């Protein structure tokens, strides 16, 4: 996990210049439409299934081979660079986007321009499934963190697919429930957790669930800056830096190079509970 307090001016300018709307670029004549004939002819059908991480996603569990083959025939994969905006909050969905490779940052913005980072989508995830399923405008913005591989199905094709394969419909229902559960958990931390220190501790504990155990402790996988961590929990960058320094002083976390380790998991759990009361 890389820990940087903020981007340099040059990094910010480079990031801004790369940032563009993936859907609009794919089909300039119609926002959100990935199904222009030229795009499909250019990209079909290079899937490269060798140990594909996306196959481990909840949507694909228990799908029969015929369903997987049909899924891959309905849309072609496409690559995009880091900083690409795949979908923007407020836009009407015309497609269902499936993440095959890479990581995508999900966020929403207030009317005052403040950003809240909701999480990171990984291979196997469906981006903004609830909006695509209900035909409601997107509630979040999805931005590629690094080079990603995406495939998309027209919304109508997706709905027809889950009607033909009941196991896919069951998987979609489960995914929608998990989205709801994650949203409730984040609201609980933001709305019912009093102190900023407790919010950060609980966020680190949440990330530990996906971290890698090493001799130095659990290595955090996310590559967020201090500013972005603050956007995850609704606090200022300075508060994040100060709290991390306190956690290091208490020997609950340890930084080695650009990586952060939770060296005392039980201690961090106790800290999170005590600091919130």
Protein described:
This protein has 277 residues and is of the alpha+beta class. It folds into two domains: 9-189, Jelly Rolls (Sandwich); 194-275, Arc Repressor Mutant, subunit A, CATH 1.10.10.10. The chain has eleven helices and twelve strands. The protein has helices at 9-18, 22-26, 37-43, 65-74, 129-134, 155-164, 166-192, 196-208, 226-233, 237-249, 265-275, and strands at residues 77-80, 85-87, 95-101, 104-109, 115-121, 126-127, 141-144, 148-154, 212-214, 217-219, 253-256, 259-262. The strands form three sheets. It has a four-stranded antiparallel sheet. The protein has a four-stranded antiparallel sheet with strand order 2-7-4-5. A hairpin with a 5-residue loop joins β4 and β5. α6 (155-164) crosses α7 and α8 packs across α9 (226-233). The longest helix has 27 residues, at 166-192. The protein is globular, with a radius of gyration of 20 Å. The two termini are 29 Å apart.
């Amino acid at each position: 996990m890389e820990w940087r307090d903020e981007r340099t001016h040059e990094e910010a300018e480079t990031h801004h210049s790369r940032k563009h709307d993936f859907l609009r670029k794919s089909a300039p004549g119609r926002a959100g439409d990935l199904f222009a004939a030229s795009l499909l002819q250019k990209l079909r059908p290079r899937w490269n299934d060798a140990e594909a991480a996306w196959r481990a996603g909840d949507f694909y569990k228990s799908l029969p081979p015929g369903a997987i083959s049909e899924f891959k025939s309905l849309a072609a994969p496409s690559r995009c660079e880091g900083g690409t905006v795949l979908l923007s909050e407020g836009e009407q969905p015309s497609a269902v986007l499936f993440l095959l490779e890479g990581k995508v940052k999900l966020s929403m913005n207030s009317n005052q321009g403040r950003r809240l980072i909701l999480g990171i989508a990984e291979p196997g995830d469906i981006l903004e499934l609830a909006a695509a399923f209900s035909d409601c405008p997107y509630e979040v913005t999805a931005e590629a963190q690094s080079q990603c591989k995406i495939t998309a199905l027209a919304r109508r094709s997706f709905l027809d697919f889950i009607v033909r394969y009941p196991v896919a419909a069951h998987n979609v229902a489960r995914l929608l429930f998990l989205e709801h559960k994650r949203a409730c958990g984040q609201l609980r931390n933001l709305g019912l957790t009093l102190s900023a220190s407790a919010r950060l501790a609980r966020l680190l504990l949440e990330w530990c669930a996906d971290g890698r155990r090493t001799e130095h402790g659990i290595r955090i996988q996310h590559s967020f800056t201090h500013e972005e961590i603050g956007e995850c929990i609704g606090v200022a960058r300075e508060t994040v830096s100060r709290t991390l320094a306190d956690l290091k002083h208490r020997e609950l976390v340890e930084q080695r190079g650009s990586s952060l380790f939770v060296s005392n998991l039980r201690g961090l759990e106790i800290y999170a509970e005590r600091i919130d009361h």
